[in-house]
Amino acid sequence: MIDIYKLTTKTNKMSLLYVEDNDMVREDTETMLDIFFENITIAKNGLEGLACYESAKYDLIITDIKMPLMNGISMISKIRESDKEIPVIIISAYDEDYNLYNIKHLNVEAYITKPFVVDELIATIHKVSS
Amino acid sequence: MIEDIAKKENISIDKNASLDDAISLMLKNGEGIVVFLDADRAVGILTERDLLLILKQKISLNVRALRYYKTSLICIHLDRSLDYALHILIDNNIRRLIIKDDENRFIGILTQEMILNYIERDTYRIHLSVSNIIGNNQEVIYVSPLESLEHSLKIMREQSIGSVVVKDKNKLLGIFTERDLIKVINNKTPLTTAVKDVMSSPVVTIDQDTIIADATELMTQKKIRRLVVTDENLEVIGIIGTRDIMKNIKGNYANLIEQKLKIAKNTLDSLPNMVIELFSTKSSHHIHWLNNKAKDIFGNVLDDDICTIIDKKFWKSIVDDINQDCYNNDARITIKDASYTLSISQYIFEEYELIRVLFVDITEIETELAQAVDSEQKMLEHLMQQSRLAQMGEMISMIAHQWRQPLAAISATIGTLKLRNMLDNYEKDFFDTKLDQITLYSQYLSDTINDFRDFFKQDKILEEGNFKKIIESTTIIIKPSLDHEGIILTLDLQKDIIINTYINEFKQVILNIIQNAYDVLIEREIENPAITIKAYESASEIFLEISDNAGGISDEIIHNIFKPYFSTKEQEGTGLGLYMSRIIIEDHCKGSISVTNSALGAIFTIKVAV
């Protein structure tokens, strides 16, 4: 059983890069992530996300896959070229099997499909934070 | 009018009269015919030609005539023209007509002779002489003066001729005709009598160079129907009768009819199709000839108006078309469970016209056609169903796109509430706001379902709709899918265009074209993919253009894309989408659909009448 008080105390000190193109999803998800993270940077596509990554330091990246200009996979691949360590969580509706196979080498912490169950996210964030 | 020259006196007799009385009357009237009446309707005729048979059978003259008279009468109405009567006489190869009034009452008879006597001298062809018209006359049959009456009659019967010339060596003694036959019977002359004792003598001869008008006058004068024609050496070269002259009055009319129509009529008679010829006046079209097949079907309708066998309105519409020169031989009619098209030819003469109607039996073709149409219809329905199923499949993926994001938003909101709950952070207003938000999202999902369901409702009737709204409500459905792939959709829609169409079918066509553009933009991985929809109208047409920037359709296949089962999508395509779009636009919406390539990509253009 995860102690949510302990977890949020821990995650509140972490900085998050959250990349999502859909306004509605992004806003609602951000409200939820606010409970965990005080410091959240928002990017609306892969290209913006990459720019944010290059200009600041983050403890965690949460990203969608299917986005205009640059998708989530390309963005992570770019980041992985220089940073093998930063934990990445994918929250996406893009759930075809071949994608799971394609992202194996990207070493992501979790692949959470939309719509998601919050317990899965809690478990993943817990794992990352410890 | 024929009523003026028809003869009634001493022509008719009660239907129960004896042969004896009938023959006496025939002798008296000098017309070679007796008409039998039932009350005042003609029910039978006896002619001098019939007497040949009566004589042969040695029938007692005391018996009632009704056993021997002919009951199939050729009657015409009293207000017909002389021309008309002439046609009937010649075309049906008969010598006399019975005239009746509106109530079918017997008015009188009209014979060839009466017409000849009536016609003015100058209606004959002045330059035409007797020799000009006896060319195709049959050979003169001679008998010797001592030949028995019985044998002479036998010759007449067998040769089917109305007279024999009595000749001794080279001397013409007389002529024995059907007219003499009446006297023979009336006087009960024994058949063993020599022909010289009953013949008409002397023979009235005429030079072959006599003009026709004079020959007619001579016949009228002598009250005879035949003249023996001789050459300059007084050699007999033929016999000329009223019938021969009849055929030559009014110029070469009869020759024309004989040579052209008669031959045609023999052919027409052997046709398996019905043929009817009409004599037409300004107000009516009377049947004046019909072939054997037509007689089988319609019975004895000679002289009846065409409208007794064909619906009046139907016939009128045909006549109107004929008069406007736009009849296409395609009028359809059903008679006794058989279907026909009427093929009509018209022969216009100076004072009258003939119309020939050919009934082309299309029953079999029509049945086959109906079956073909039926199976084609079923095929089309089947294809339509297949196409709809395919489109529904595509729409399910559109629904998935439509729903994913709101569902993700709902799950995120629920996650937020759950986390707050775990943290005992119950802020009432916050909870209310978030719960309302979830309700809103649910409503959105429900609306989406309705949109899709409406989309597949079958159109039963034409509806008026705002063209802009129709297009917008269609694009709403696919917009999330386009957004998902980063495809920019631009609408350039002229306001206030009203269209009268099967709205849902029309929407399906629009969606189908957008879906195709979407597929090809993704397949070709086009940068900055875009679809543009443009709607505008001219005075008579509404235009809808759907274009993309996917590079266009190759020349090899552009002509095939509207054909059934043609698809460029390897596995998923049914090849029916554009085919059904074409069917919907062309057959249902009475418009047109076409495709061209621009520098950027394909442009589909739909045109429908305002």
Polypeptide structure, described:
The complex is a heterodimer of chains A (130) and B (610). The two termini of chain A are 14 Å apart. The mean pLDDT of chain A is 89. Chain A has a five-stranded parallel beta sheet. The radius of gyration of chain A is 14 Å and the shape is globular. Chain A has 130 residues and is α/β, with parallel strands linked by helices. Chain A has helices at 4-11, 23-33, 46-55, 72-82, 97-102, 118-129, and strands at 15-19, 39-43, 60-63, 88-92, 110-113. Chain A has one domain (4-125): Rossmann fold, CATH 3.40.50. Chain B has 610 residues and is α+β, with helices and mostly antiparallel strands. Chain B folds into four domains: 2-118, CBS-domain (Roll), CATH 3.10.580.10; 121-248, CBS-domain; 271-361, 2-Layer Sandwich (Beta-Lactamase), CATH 3.30.450; 370-609, Heat Shock Protein 90, CATH 3.30.565.10. In chain B, strands 14-13-17-16-15 form a five-stranded antiparallel beta sheet. In chain B, helix 1 (19-29) links the parallel strand 1 and strand 2. The two termini of chain B are 58 Å apart. In chain B, 33% of the residues are buried. The mean pLDDT of chain B is 83. The interface between A and B is medium-sized, with 24 and 21 residues.
Features:
heterodimer; A: 130 residues; alpha/beta; Rossmann fold; 5-stranded parallel beta sheet; B: 610 residues; CBS-domain; Beta-Lactamase; 4 domains; 24 strands; 42% helix
